[in-house]
């Protein structure tokens, strides 16, 4: 079975793909945990032969590539995972992403009923999973998400720092 670090390395690899295409390097993947085999999702996965540890959806930022504000890595991973299992509820999954999700993505996590989020690095300017606000654990809402942070934080920080310094250099040269 893969570890949190293994999955985060995959998310970082997706983030590098985004960077190579001129988008902010954010990569996300959704993994089926298999902890609730008797749940509706568990039964769907059993019917489809999906085993615990299976990656259901992958995504990376494509906003610049698609000229669309909705093309965040988390949103794309959620969309692919829902399509793969044939349901909008991802009630037995973990979302791995290298940067704390923004308000839109945090809302999508709640709407998809994802129970667990693992991320590398806080986002002090736009993070809605603990930095600016923590919507994933608001008692007023009907769903809450367990959060684990700082997984491969250094690698994520290096990737984002390199990307933004490279962008600043390009602007300076123009």
UniProtKB/TrEMBL annotation:
Family matches, as Pfam families: MafB19-deam
Keyword set, alphabetical order: Hydrolase, Metal-binding, tRNA processing, Zinc
UniProt domain CMP/dCMP-type deaminase: residue ranges: 2-131
Cofactor binding, per record: Binds 1 zinc ion per subunit.
Entry annotation: catalytic residues: 74 (proton donor)
Gene Ontology biological process: tRNA wobble adenosine to inosine editing
InterPro entries: APOBEC/CMP_deaminase_Zn-bd (IPR016192), CMP_dCMP_dom (IPR002125), Cytidine_deaminase-like (IPR016193), MafB19-deam (IPR058535), tRNA_aden_deaminase (IPR028883)
Keyword tRNA processing: yes
Reaction catalysed by this enzyme: adenosine(34) in tRNA + H2O + H(+) = inosine(34) in tRNA + NH4(+)
Domain of life: Bacteria
Molecular function GO terms recorded: tRNA-specific adenosine-34 deaminase activity; zinc ion binding
Cofactor requirements of the protein: Zn(2+)
EC nos: 3.5.4.33
Binding site for Zn(2+): 72, 102, 105
SUPFAM superfamilies tied to this protein: Cytidine deaminase-like
Keyword hit for tRNA-binding: no
Binding partners and assembly: Homodimer.
PANTHER family named in the record: CYTOSINE DEAMINASE FAMILY MEMBER (PTHR11079), TRNA-SPECIFIC ADENOSINE DEAMINASE (PTHR11079:SF202)
Protein family per UniProt: Belongs to the cytidine and deoxycytidylate deaminase family. ADAT2 subfamily.
Full protein name: tRNA-specific adenosine deaminase
Source organism of this protein record: Oribacterium sinus
Lineage, broadest ranks: Bacteria, Bacillati, Bacillota, Clostridia, Lachnospirales
């Amino acid at each position: 079975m893969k570890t949190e670090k293994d999955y985060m390395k995959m998310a970082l690899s997706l983030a590098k793909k985004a960077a190579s295409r001129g988008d902010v390097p954010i990569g996300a993947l959704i993994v089926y945990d298999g902890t609730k085999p008797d749940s509706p999702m568990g039964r769907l996965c059993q019917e489809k032969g999906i085993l615990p540890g299976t990656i259901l959806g992958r995504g990376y930022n494509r906003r610049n590539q698609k000229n669309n504000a909705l093309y965040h890595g988390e949103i794309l991973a959620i969309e692919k995972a829902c399509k793969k299992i044939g349901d909008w509820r991802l009630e037995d999954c973990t979302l791995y992403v290298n940067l704390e999700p923004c308000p839109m993505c945090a809302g999508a996590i709640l709407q998809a009923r994802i129970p667990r989020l693992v991320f590398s690095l806080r986002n002090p300017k736009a993070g809605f999973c603990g930095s600016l606000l923590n919507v994933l654990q608001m008692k007023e809402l009907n769903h809450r998400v367990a959060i684990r942070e700082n997984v491969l934080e250094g690698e994520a920080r290096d990737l984002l720092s390199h990307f933004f310094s490279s962008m600043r250099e390009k602007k300076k040269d123009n």
